[in-house]
Amino acid sequence: RKEYVDLYVNYKFNKSVQKPFEDFMQGFLRGCPARNWKMFFPEELQVLLQGHQTFDWHLLEKNVTYTEYMESDQTIRNFWTVFHELPEEKKKMFLVFLSGSDRISGYGLRPFRFCIADPQKENPDESSPYASTCSLTLFLPR
């Protein structure tokens, strides 16, 4: 029985995926030659390829610039109060809304900067926030 289980596990985890894995590895090595990525630990390589998955949200707040707003404006204070009360998943959804991705590059949040701008609508109560993902700008009506 042990031999059967060993052979079955070997088939499921190794032999059955051998061809697709070889194809993947060949493509991966074509785009990222082994000599370039062997210097990284697996965790570092994962961050480089996938970006960071955990964030210091207060650092994100410190990196924001404002257009037609000041940091002390009530709208901005309300925004950050609500933002920091959101669950982690909703904060990542905000990143998707703002930048198109729920992850930040391997450099982390320190160089990640975005802008909160006032779209200067005549009636801000009839306008919703919107974002320009190209310029990382959140247009937040008053």
Automatic annotation (TrEMBL):
InterPro entries: E3A/B/C-like, HECT_dom, Hect_E3_ubiquitin_ligase. PROSITE patterns: HECT. This is HECT-type E3 ubiquitin transferase. The active site is at residue 134. GO terms for biological process: protein polyubiquitination. Residues 1-142 form the HECT domain. Coiled coil: none annotated. Pfam families: HECT. It catalyses: S-ubiquitinyl-[E2 ubiquitin-conjugating enzyme]-L-cysteine + [acceptor protein]-L-lysine = [E2 ubiquitin-conjugating enzyme]-L-cysteine + N(6)-ubiquitinyl-[acceptor protein]-L-lysine. Keywords: Ligase, Transferase, Ubl conjugation pathway. SUPFAM superfamilies: Hect, E3 ligase catalytic domain. One of its GO terms (molecular function) is ubiquitin protein ligase activity. Its EC number is 2.3.2.26.
